[in-house]
Amino acid sequence: VPDRRRAIKAGPPSTRELRPRRAKTASKPVHTSHKAKAPADAVHVWAKIQAQFGAAWAFMWMPGSPPADCDAAEARLGVAIPVRVRELMSVCAGAGFPGFAVDFSSDVTLQPVRLWEKISDQLVDALELQPERDDYIVIGCNPEGADYGKYVLLRASTSDVYSVTENIPECIPMGPFEHWLTTLRQTPAQMIEALREDPDFTVEHAVEQHRFYLSLMLGKDDLLAHWNAIEDAFAAALRGVMRRPS
To answer: Is the pTM of this model over 0.90?
Structure first.
């Protein structure tokens, strides 16, 4: 098993992808950043997700993607974003937790709709998807997995989500978008345990390391802007948890 913390090669991560195998939260983070009213059940879904992380981490959650971002993404990507996906993304656009413990959890990998991208030609060829290439969207990645090529794909026509690990190679179905969103999660305890496995662990090191990984990503300016806004709060929350008796 490769060491997740081995040094990242210079330059951005590869974009080559591979064939799938068949195989109490504060109310503030839940609100959208735009005037359009999100469906109550979509708000409830995110409230339940955020409640599992607790109020200590409420600052992490990003505002929802407004309709204008979804419309622009559809025009840019050449595919319709499923209605339910739009509804859920209108409430919250993820959190961007550092993610060593659960590689493809939604709280780690999901990105705002404005950062969603087309899949690469390499993935289209590997999956033999020429007639269906516009049906697949890259909706997220794990920055800590930059050296491994860890991506999340959405198939628009079915709302199904797939995990891609480039260097194995491996691509695995993870179920419908809402199922993935609500079930595959890295808890704060798992995140902290994984961070502490690093022999060089300090709060400062964890913060700087995550910033470095973000700097390798497509959409790095947006991702770093979000991280810079919450970095001090993240460090304070991490210190607070570390001081608690086990």
So the answer is: no
Tokens 């991506």, residue located: 151
CA distance 12 to 239: 31
Rounded Cα–Cα distance for residues 245 and 82 (Å): 45
C-alpha distances (whole Å) from 145 to each of 50, 140, 194 are: 24, 12, 13
Maximum CA extent, the chain: 56
The whole-angstrom separation of Cα 220 and Cα 226 is: 10
* Residue that the structure tokens 């628009």 belong to: 156
- At 18, phi and psi to the nearest 5? -135, 170
Host H or E run for residue 152: strand 150-155
Helical axes 83-91 vs 67-77, angle rounded to 10°:
130
Three-state DSSP class for residue 220: helix
For residue 15, count CB atoms less than 10 angstroms from its CB and return exposed for 0-12, middle for 13-18, buried for 19 or more: middle
**Burial (Cβ within 10 Å: 0-12, 13-18, ≥19) of residue 224:** middle
Instruction: Give Cα 152 to chain centroid, integer Å.
Output: 8
DSSP 138: E
Q: Which amino acid is at 41?
A: D
Q: Could you read off the pLDDT tens digit of each residue along the chain, which spans 246 residues?
A: 333 333 333 333 333 343 444 333 344 555 554 445 778 999 999 999 999 888 999 999 999 999 999 999 999 999 999 999 999 999 999 999 988 777 789 999 999 999 999 988 876 676 666 777 788 899 999 888 777 778 899 999 999 999 988 777 777 899 999 999 999 888 888 888 888 888 888 999 999 999 999 998 878 899 999 999 999 999 999 988 877 655
